[in-house]
Design a protein that fits this description.
Elements: E1 2-7, H1 13-27, E2 31-36, E3 48-56, H2 65-73, H3 84-90, E4 98-105, H4 114-124, E5 130-137, H5 149-160
Parallel strand pairs: 1-2, 1-3, 3-4, 4-5
Protein name: Flavodoxin-like domain-containing protein
Organism: bioreactor metagenome
InterPro entries: Flavodoxin/NO_synth, Flavoprotein-like_sf
Length: about 180
Amino acid sequence: MGVLIVCESSFGNTRHVAEAIGAGLSKKGHHVALFAVENAPREIPEDVTLLLVGSPTHNMAMTTAETRARAVAEGAPTAPAIGVHEWIDVVTPRRTLLVRTFDTRTTGRFLPSAARDAARALKSNGFHGAKTGESFQVDPRTTGLADGELQRAHEWGMALADLDPGAGTDHLPRH
């Protein structure tokens, strides 16, 4: 399975999660390409059978230009020129492609999140195989990932490796 991971990250947490997910997939023998959102392709290559889209959660949603600027003002080393939401608006959809979203956030698991928003936006843009994946917790005191989250991301990547791109559905456990 060819896997494309597109992620947006300002503080680096979402990027670290994306790398851990990719390592889990690679461990199971899958070819993984990871792109920062501003460098992500607008056409998904035909050999890609799984698309993963990750974003930090700002104000319980995907980022905006305003929230990315605020992140820099609060100490983020950088902010991408475009976010996941803007990329979703310009990427050419593939109706049957398996797509899973993930996010990083400081809020509780059952509150609105960038992953949920991204899955909805991807479906609206024609990616009918898009589903909300996992949320990974950021410690609000340190602004770093909470203990154990990189290991959980790696394990989720290994679980994603077992998806059958031809089946149309999956039965992945939620963590």
